[in-house]
């Protein structure tokens, strides 16, 4: 029997919890600016990735490596149906990885291996595979990745990878003048409050983005303190900090002034630094937003959850400053934004919250009569506008400086039309690309 899946949009006033839409048949919009496990793994300098899976699953990861111009750091071991029926998946996996390594011009210092859900279904003892590989190639660090979409509702592959990619970091004596940022695809902007606060205390911030060699990457282990700012990277950063015996500060990027003050206060207290004038910081943000409002006016604004982990907080911030936010595209609400949803439910009950994956969106109208400002690539695609902020995962924005940067990005987006159809299908926005 066919069943109607329910509405693909509801108003903030109609919400009763952070679970917004049913988890059923899904539509995949052609907006691929986010990073996948290939992009994330390529952050480890000099690392080589090996995927062990069937050809149908291989297509996407191969294309990602090709689009990055990184096929020299990428290899495949193809599983066939007869490998499953004959019970030879373990041996094919081991022999295939061996073959790849013997054929490379030189052994890489690190190999990230990606088994798949087939290995889980068949109970392949990957621990034994890794032990044999480590015995045969002792000069190589083997990282235990996974491309297992069946874990989507549990520990998703990219969240797992943001932890295991740091497993090679050795336990060494800490350098208390060094702080390491883990679990984020983007380093904070140079004018980020995070960098400014640390510099004010004579501290250095290091991240994987600064590393050109594998030796430099291993040097991240020297940091006396580990910081994370991206929700999907928090678990991995925390686990790495526990293993290395380091304190971990989770300071997620936010648009809530009080939360920003609280997080920056944690940094000032932790490192024993004097507090700045937060009132002046707030006033500076208000001035930037007022300037943006003077440019944008009453134009309708759409926001998506791709642009930033806190889209509802951004919606609240803009509404509080007089902007005409009409829609937020998201499929669920992070518990970190529960307070923002409560505020919107009371103060902006007509704000539309729209799914991005329910099937009827495939044929939903994608044009607007009014010139629309989109904040995020999915919002741009769904509204059919060329005036949009092209950013994913927060793009390194953090603190009060992040609020000011977002305001400036909105002004730039409003003044300069982009080619939406050309831009939004591109994968890994912000990473190296040969497209």
Indicate the topology.
Blueprint: E1 9-11, H1 37-41, E2 47-53, H2 55-67, E3 74-78, H3 81-85, H4 89-103, E4 110-114, H5 117-122, H6 126-136, E5 141-144, H7 157-164, E6 175-181, H8 193-200, E7 204-207, H9 214-218, E8 223-228, H10 231-244, E9 248-250, H11 257-270, H12 278-296, E10 300-304, H13 311-320, E11 324-329, H14 338-347, E12 352-354, E13 373-375, H15 377-383, E14 388-389, H16 399-415, H17 420-423
Parallel strand pairs: 2-3, 2-4, 4-5, 6-7, 6-8, 8-9, 10-11, 10-13, 11-12, 13-14
Antiparallel strand pairs: 1-12
Helix pairs in contact: 4-6, 7-10, 12-16, 13-14
Can you put this structure into words, describing what you see?
- The structure is a single chain.
- The protein is of the alpha/beta class and 435 residues long.
- It folds into 3 domains: 120 residues, Nitrogenase molybdenum iron protein domain (Rossmann fold, 3-Layer(aba) Sandwich), CATH 3.40.50.1980; 96 residues, Nitrogenase molybdenum iron protein domain (Rossmann fold, 3-Layer(aba) Sandwich); 137 residues, Rossmann fold (3-Layer(aba) Sandwich), CATH 3.40.50.
- The protein contains 17 helices and 14 strands.
- It has a 6-stranded mixed β-sheet with strand order 1-12-11-10-13-14, with helices on both faces. The chain has a 4-stranded parallel β-sheet with strand order 3-2-4-5, sandwiched between helices. A 4-stranded parallel β-sheet has the order 7-6-8-9.
- α4 runs parallel beside α6, α12 runs parallel beside α16 and α13 runs parallel beside α14.
- The two termini are 45 Å apart.
- 43% of the residues are buried.
